[in-house]
Each structure stands twice: as structure tokens, then as C-alpha cells.
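Work Package 4 report. The design task specified in the project plan requires that, given a folded chain encoded as C-alpha cells, an amino acid be chosen for each position. We show below one input record used in the internal validation round.
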């Protein structure tokens, strides 16, 4: 089996697990957050949340268990 097929097989095994992972996207750029959300959705993530600033993200983190955070490095008013 070549490396490309091995990668596909590994991803296929992970798909059921990806749907259970809760992901928070933090980005003040709405278009970028949508691109990231669409990419995550396309590979099998189903529990995707977005926050447009740091204070909203903190509230969301206090409301539910988040497994993974993808964040913009610089955001207003709080990084």
C-alpha cells in the first residue's frame, strides 16, 4: 500500500471520532472563520463553534467542553 492510500485509510478510521470532537474557531475575520469551518466540516467535524473575539470565546469555553481551539493570533479588543 502506498503512502497516499495509507493516509486515506488512517483518515477513514478517524472519521467517526472526528464527529465527536468539539472545535472552537476564534477569528474576528468572518470570511476566514467560514473557510476554516467549511474545511473542518468537509473532513468530518460536526461540532464546530465560532467566536469573533476573546471575551466571546472565554464565555463559550465556560459553557461547554471544547476539545480543540483554532485561533487567530491578533484580535480586537482581546487577543
Amino acid at each position: 500500500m502506498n503512502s497516499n492510500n495509507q493516509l486515506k485509510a488512517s483518515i477513514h478510521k478517524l472519521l467517526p471520532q472526528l464527529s465527536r470532537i468539539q472545535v472552537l474557531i476564534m477569528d474576528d475575520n468572518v470570511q476566514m472563520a467560514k473557510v476554516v469551518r467549511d474545511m473542518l466540516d468537509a473532513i468530518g467535524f460536526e461540532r464546530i463553534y465560532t467566536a469573533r473575539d476573546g471575551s466571546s470565546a472565554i464565555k463559550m469555553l465556560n459553557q461547554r467542553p471544547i476539545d480543540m481551539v483554532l485561533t487567530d493570533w491578533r484580535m480586537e479588543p482581546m487577543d
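The mean pLDDT is 85. Validation will be extended to a larger panel in the next phase.
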